[in-house]
Amino acid sequence: MTAPLPPVERESARTAGASAAGLAAGLVDAEAERQAHQAAAQRQVVFADDLLPGVGDAQLTLREGLAAGGSATFVTLALLAAMDELESATLSVLAPDIRDAFGMSDGAIVFISAASGAFLVLGALPMGWLADRFRRNRVIGWAGVAFSAMVFACGMAASAFLLFLARFGVGIAKSSTLPVHGSMIADTYPIGVRGRLGAVNAGAARVAGALSPLIVGGVATLVGGANGWRWPFFLLGLPALAVALCAFRLPEPKRGQHEMKSVLGEVVEDDRPMPISVEAAFARLMRIRSLRTTIMAFAAMGFSLFTGAILTNLWLEDHFGASSFQRGVLGTVGGASMLVALPFIGPRYDRLYRRDPARALALLGYLILPCAVFLPVQWAMPNAIAFTAVGIPASILMSAAFAMVGPVLSSVVPYRLRGLGSALSAIYIFFIGATGGALISALISNAYDPRVAMLVVGVPATLIGGYLVVRSSTFIKGDLSMVVQELREELEERDRQADDPDNIPVLQVNNIDFSYGHVQVLFDVAFDVRRGETLALLGTNGAGKSTILKVICGLGTPSRGVVRLNGRTVTYVAPEQRGRYGIHLLPGGKGVFPDMTVRENLEMAAFRIRRDAAHRERRFAHVLDLFPDLSDRQTQTAGSLSGGQQQMLALAMVLMHDPEVLLIDELSLGLAPVVVQDLLAIIERLKADGLTIVVVEQSLNIALSIADRAVFLEKGQVRFTGPTRELAERDDLARAVFLGKEGG
Ligand SMILES: Nc1ncnc2c1ncn2[C@@H]1O[C@H](COP(=O)(O)OP(=O)(O)OP(=O)(O)O)[C@@H](O)[C@H]1O
């Protein structure tokens, strides 16, 4: 039992309880307000359908669409895709022969064939990165040459391990198909024919896939003997090389040209695009909800799709006793049937997309869902012919849906990130889907049989996949609206720069939204900083001041908006690269290595310029001249310096980089007034030298003394931009937050 409190304590406890309750209520209100902003921000960006890229555009025939970009690109890429398919079929059909030749188990051959999905992923990332940076025709050409060499190596393999290695090479070479071909096709041909091009492309691959079991089975049977399986690989290598050589001569299309034509009516050219960081690109891509959900869906389906062909062939041989030729014939019939839907799905998708992109995407989900019913029926069939026949409807529906993945990705991914966007999809679909599926199927197949493996994995994977695709269709218009906003902003900026080329701000922050996880903390933040200007970022606690500095220097990727340095977009450029271009951050808190001496700290900062001795010495001399206090303490450890001296050292370290734009987070926090005066004197010198500075400050007085202009942030939104003097006169903004705090 607790003793009752005396009256005075009871009173103060009541007051404390009341103020805690008030604080809690305030926090709940603030969070409710933030959530309302977030919901409003997400709602606002959905434009009317006819403003979205490709929606409501004039209808084009396939011939007109192909003529717009020249058919050479499409034909070459379709041939390469067909050869990919031929290669995959070679392994599937010959799996039992290869298994017997090397004395492998079912599980081992299933793993070797399906694991190429994992190898494919290893290449997808560099290929996507190359596709977003360099001429895509060369990337495709070199990947094709590597493919042909590795296909040859598969035929030469003297052991299961060497075959595994050759498959590794094939997988890497094939990895150019999704990221590089997709990006090339999207930029070469108009949006209105993407569905049909996807269907024709898939059709070409299907024709090859459908004929290849016959060809492969035929060649293997014709040559005969234990080495018959090698010859289909040899025969594929040569034409693959010829097509790869043609790819080098394809024209390189302008990036994003069709989105720009559709949305803006003209093409905004960017002659010197900044290099994009993979990390920032992925962070941005994962915020595209329709993309995220679609790739999760296809990853789920990948669990059964990639092992499906192998398990089918093993089942046909082991359960129904089909020979390699019979399997080839059945495979050809099954594969050919997939062609049935392709002439319909492409035009249907394009038509729906022109009217309503959400319906076009939902259609794919409705194609997938019924496959979950066909699958158990097929695997219950008593003979090979019934088994193949019942498998046909599911194959038709599934291949129709898969043929449209490329067109969907091309639409929702920003054009600068198309290669990496496809690479991200490849990672999910092939690595998580195919490899995960391969492992699980191999285990179940070894423990039971291919049928159990197929049913246990396939049915849930198909249901989940279909549901997720339908769900992703609810997000597509919001994501396309973002594409429109970005394009419009680019056009406006180009016009602004053309109108006043001498007045391009050094730093430009435009329409920035930023979230930590699902919590949005910046809303449409925008401001400019002119050359030589000092801008103060002021605001309440947690308003997002430090976050905006992170976004500027590249430590955070915004979900919307642009950051420009000297008129060039750096939104997705890596932080270290931005450092090279001149953006540097002095972070809040301790920015030194306490166990190292002052000199060693400065040497660490000079690491990047270590090879240029003269430049390095100039920077040392400049910095030590600016900070005589540090000059006298070069052998002292940083940890033994006073707080003010440590802040000086941190600033000196940033200045070693010779920044063009200096970002300072909390210059004066926790420092004695006399130290702050010394720091301000240094900032004055830097200003006089023409350095551009953005400084986050808590103190309005300090901001008034150093900054020409101020931006006031509250709850992630800009409430004021203008001369610092004017902010000081705005009682509503300044008094409560700063004067009150300083006074108190
Ligand atoms: N790493 C993080 N993860 C999740 N939320 C974060 C993270 N960093 C900051 N936040 C939240 O984001 C919001 C903005 O934070 P930020 O540090 O940018 O504000 P600030 O204006 O610099 O505030 P202060 O002056 O208090 O540092 C705050 O609500 C904060 O709690």
From TrEMBL:
* Family from the record: Belongs to the ABC transporter superfamily.
- Record the organism: Yinghuangia aomiensis
> Where found?
Cell membrane
* Presence of the UniProt keyword Membrane in the record: yes
Matches recorded under SUPFAM superfamilies = MFS general substrate transporter (SSF103473), P-loop containing nucleoside triphosphate hydrolases (SSF52540)
Report how it sits in the membrane. Answer: Multi-pass membrane protein
Q: Name one Pfam family in it.
A: ABC_tran
InterPro entries from the entry?
AAA+_ATPase, ABC_transporter-like_ATP-bd, ABC_transporter-like_CS, BCAA_Transport_ATP-bd_LivF, MFS, MFS_dom, MFS_trans_sf, P-loop_NTPase
> Keyword set for this entry?
Amino-acid transport, ATP-binding, Membrane, Nucleotide-binding, Transmembrane, Transmembrane helix, Transport
Q: Which residues form the Major facilitator superfamily (MFS) profile domain?
A: 73-473
| Cited PROSITE patterns | ABC_TRANSPORTER_1, ABC_TRANSPORTER_2, MFS
Q: Which residues cross the membrane?
A: 108-127, 139-166, 204-225, 231-251, 294-316, 328-346, 358-379, 385-409, 421-444, 450-470
Q: Does the keyword Manganese apply?
A: no
Under which name does UniProt file this protein? ABC transporter
Q: Which residues form the ABC transporter domain?
A: 507-740
Database matches in Gene3D superfamilies: MFS general substrate transporter like domains, P-loop containing nucleotide triphosphate hydrolases
Lineage of source species:
Bacteria, Bacillati, Actinomycetota, Actinomycetes, Kitasatosporales
